[in-house]
Each structure stands twice: as structure tokens, then as C-alpha cells.
């Protein structure tokens, strides 16, 4: 039998932690002396203690650790661990994106934003449209894109897919979302139907990298629109020039953001302006 101090040294779990695990029924000593209250452990308990230690290092909650240890089915134990690892990977991805966004925001001299004023003609596209909660956008997007791909096939599309995002989605957490693909003859199949996108004037820039950090680019483009005395009009448009459908390398993803605006008199179609600095629409940029 091993005294609690010896067991602590062998398992790298502190005496305080071992006492706590005993109290919650996670790792009970082999023997507790009735007169002294001293706890004693067997060498057979070392692997269990090490498993608990590893799970806690991965921030698995105590209740989940108990479920894993008490499950008699190895497959169920593996599934419980895999479920938690999936959550950790998602949290790590969100942390990575947040750090990248913060670095962009805190950079002493952020790279100037390249913005193009563009006139988009009216066009009929194949689209899926619905009212969506902001929390459900990712899942809805994946389902809508899969349905568009199934309805059109890989060869029927001309140009990258795109989306229209209603202002309510940003302002109230719920709004209309339209995902589309260009095709010569848009079908009516399931949720997919032909939709006529109206002609629009856009202030356009390109977001590079993962889409989770697109809010920084949105802010920069919005600042550019305000600084150039343009008026926002209508839902934001996105076009997915390069995305997960094209490559697994998120650094190569390119998302075009089009902010609908009322064009200021004198602006020329296709004119490119190269920074987010405050300026008038006729400051000499070409």
C-alpha cells in the first residue's frame, strides 16, 4: 500500500488534489485508516490517476471524467474523449482567429485597404434564401451550398458563389440570407430557385484568410465608406473567390466584400482607391 504522499509523487497529483478527488468520488483510496483518517492507495490505481491527470490537463470537466472512467464500453470512452477534443479544437481555432484579428487591429501602421467602386449589373442567379439566426449562419450556409451544388452540378456554374446578408442579421441577430451561384439556366429544385439580383453600386474590398476574422475587414471597409462621404444602401454582398470548396489552406482563402452605396457624382466605374484614410471622393486618386 502507498501512503498519499508516495502516491502523489508517483502520479504528479498533489495531496490536495487527491483529497478533492476522493471527496467527489472520482478516485477513492484503496484504504482509509479508521482511527487516523490516513489515505492509502494501491499501485494498481496509478494508471487511473494518470488518465485523470491527462484528462484534466485537457480541461475535461470532472463530471465528464467520471463518465469516462465509469463507462465499461471502450468505444463509448473513446467517443467521449473525441467529443471533448473536438470542442477543444474549435475553441483553439476561435482563439487563433481572435489573436490574428487583434494583431491586425493593434498594428501600429495597418496596411492600407484597397477599395474599388464598382457597378454591378442586374443578373439572374440560382439561389437559396431564408431567414436565419446569426448563430445558425455557418450550418445554414453549409446546407444551402450543398443543395446548390447538388441542383447545379460541378460544371453548370459560371463564376464563384456569393451571398447577400440582410442588415437585420448584424443589427438584431436575425435576418435574410441569400446564397447564390451563377448559371445560365437557374433551376427550380427543392429550395433552389431563380432570383433576380438588382443592379447595384458597390464599394468592394477583399478579405484574406479565414472568414471568422472578416469583421475587421468589414470595419475597415465601413470606415472607408464613411470617410468618403458615401451612403450605405441595401444588404452587404460577399463573393467567395477562394474558399474551403477550393483549398484546405485557409491562408489562401479570399472573400470579396461589397458594400452597397449611393455613388457620389463624378466617380468613375471601376475606379480604385487605395487606403482607409479620411478623404473626399474627388481627392485626386485614380
Reading the helices and strands in chain order gives EHHEEHHHEEHEHEEEHEEEE
Domain count: 2
Major sheet summary line: 10 strands, antiparallel
CATH architecture of the largest domain: Alpha-Beta Barrel
Alpha-carbon Rg, integer: 28 Å
Distance between the termini: 83 Å
The number of strands is: 13
Count of individual helical segments: 8
Counting helices, strands and paired strands, the structural category is alpha+beta
Name the poorly predicted regions: 265-286
By CATH, the superfamily of the largest domain comes out as Regulatory factor, effector binding domain
- Residues in β-strands, percent: 15-25%
Structure description:
The protein is α+β, with helices and mostly antiparallel strands and 286 residues long. It folds into two domains: 2-70, Multidrug-efflux Transporter Regulator, Chain: A, Domain 2, CATH 1.10.1660.10; 115-273, Regulatory factor, effector binding domain (Multidrug-efflux Transporter 1 Regulator Bmrr, Chain A, Alpha-Beta Barrel), CATH 3.20.80. The chain contains eight helices and 13 strands. The strands form two sheets. Strands 4, 5, 6, 7, 8, 9, 10, 11, 12 and 13 form a ten-stranded antiparallel beta sheet that branches. A three-stranded antiparallel beta sheet has the order 1-3-2. It is elongated and about 85 Å long. 22% of the residues are buried.
Amino acid at each position: 500500500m502507498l501512503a498519499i504522499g508516495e502516491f502523489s509523487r508517483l502520479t504528479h497529483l498533489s495531496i490536495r488534489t487527491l483529497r478533492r478527488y476522493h471527496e467527489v468520488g472520482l478516485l477513492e483510496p484503496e484504504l482509509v485508516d479508521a482511527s487516523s483518517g490516513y489515505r492509502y492507495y494501491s499501485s494498481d490505481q496509478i494508471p487511473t490517476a494518470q488518465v485523470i491527470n491527462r484528462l484534466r490537463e485537457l480541461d475535461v470537466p470532472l463530471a465528464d471524467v467520471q463518465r469516462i472512467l465509469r463507462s465499461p464500453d471502450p468505444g463509448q470512452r473513446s467517443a467521449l474523449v473525441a467529443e471533448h477534443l473536438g470542442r477543444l479544437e474549435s475553441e483553439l481555432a476561435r482563439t487563433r482567429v481572435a489573436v490574428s484579428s487583434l494583431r491586425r487591429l493593434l498594428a501600429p501602421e495597418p496596411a492600407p485597404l484597397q477599395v474599388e467602386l464598382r457597378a454591378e449589373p442586374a443578373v439572374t442567379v440560382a439561389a437559396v434564401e431564408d431567414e436565419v439566426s446569426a448563430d445558425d449562419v455557418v450550418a445554414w450556409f453549409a446546407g444551402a451550398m450543398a443543395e446548390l451544388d447538388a441542383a447545379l452540378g460541378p460544371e453548370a456554374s459560371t463564376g464563384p458563389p456569393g451571398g447577400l446578408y440582410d442588415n437585420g442579421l448584424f443589427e438584431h441577430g436575425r435576418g435574410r440570407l441569400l446564397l447564390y451561384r451563377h448559371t445560365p439556366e437557374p433551376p427550380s429544385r427543392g429550395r433552389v430557385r431563380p432570383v433576380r439580383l438588382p443592379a447595384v453600386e458597390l464599394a468592394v474590398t477583399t478579405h484574406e484568410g479565414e472568414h471568422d476574422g472578416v469583421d475587421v475587414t468589414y470595419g475597415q471597409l465601413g470606415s472607408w465608406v464613411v470617410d468618403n462621404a458615401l451612403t450605405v444602401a441595401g444588404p452587404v454582398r460577399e463573393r467567395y473567390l477562394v474558399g474551403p470548396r477550393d483549398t484546405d489552406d485557409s491562408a489562401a482563402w479570399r472573400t470579396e466584400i461589397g458594400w452597397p452605396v449611393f455613388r457620389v457624382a463624378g466617380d468613375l466605374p471601376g475606379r480604385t482607391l487605395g487606403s482607409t484614410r479620411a478623404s473626399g471622393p474627388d481627392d485626386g486618386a485614380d
